[in-house]
Amino acid sequence: MGLVEDFNGYRTKMNERIMASDSLIIKRIFNLDTNAYAPGALDVKSKELIGLTCSLVLRCDDCVRYHLGKCKEVGLTTDEVQEAMGISTLIGGTIVVPHLRRAFEYWDELSKNV
């Protein structure tokens, strides 16, 4: 399996496990997350770029991968994604660079699978 398939497989498996629990709080958080990215005053592309940039600044590789997948899914271009990631690196500082490397690697993999 590849990088993208490994991530998506594990994420799906563990999300199913989490949702099988009786935790109302966790279920509400997952629901809130889903609804936050629905179209509203901001379009979905803008929301995914915001999610991506925040995830990079916060240095959450799983979140970065998830949002990169969604960015690809909603039709964002490489130039758009890379410009947003540049802003993330500017805001987050050089500590973001290792996460940026992994983000570029993951985007490259997503781009191969199209």
Automatic annotation (TrEMBL):
Pfam families: CMD. GO terms for molecular function: peroxiredoxin activity. Residues 28-105 form the Carboxymuconolactone decarboxylase-like domain. PANTHER family: ALKYL HYDROPEROXIDE REDUCTASE AHPD (PTHR33930), BLR3452 PROTEIN (PTHR33930:SF2). This is Carboxymuconolactone decarboxylase family protein. It comes from Chryseotalea sanaruensis. The lineage of its organism: Bacteria, Pseudomonadati, Bacteroidota, Cytophagia, Cytophagales.
